[in-house]
Amino acid sequence: MDGHDPIAAPTNDLVVFVCADGRHVDIGRTRPDGSGHLTLRDGAWAYCAAGRPTEPHTWVEISPRLLPAISHEDGPGQEATS
Amino acid sequence: MPGVKKVLVVEDDRAIREMIVAALAEAGYAVAAARNGAEGLERCRLFGPDVVILDLMMPEVDGVEFLKRRPAEGCAVPVVVMSAAFHRGSLPEDIPVDAFIEKPFPIDVFLNTVAAQTPEGDAAARRRRMSRN
After folding, report:
1. Contact at CB, B18 and A45, closer than 8 angstroms
2. Which end of chain A is more exposed for a tag (fewer CB within 10 A), N or C?
């Protein structure tokens, strides 16, 4: 550990943030649903369909849902909550 | 410390790795971490874990390569693979794993899965649940 507070652990299996970066969304559309990258943000699961691009993500909060319920067809906003 | 179970976490995503390390440490495990399969194999030899938590999709040496190499690298301990369901198919059928945790997961499911793979793991999990209630 390098001195900062540990990241809070997720209490459920729901995805709460998705990456809405335009380039990442475009990359994600070329890949199967569910094959992207999962990480953590604010103690909740976050998903980027592009996998592990080097550029920063643009996270948007969505209504929490299971990973299989997230598809390219929903678009990058995924019913954003804010 | 006698009786303390040792867990090695091999995960490239910093946020997930640090969260898991903190959760395992809080649960009473001695924990070491590695950022890819190559580091993981080295740490497995040096740290001597009771169980390895292994991500599949990592740079350089990925989880599948870790599993292929570990018998020759002296890492013969139970392995819990954690990955999104989509990537489960990348596990070769001839390389068995001891457990699979599907990302995303709630932390209690993760800790119970690890406990089940460590000696006296069930008892440790019961103690942990009781101490939190």
Report:
1. no
2. C
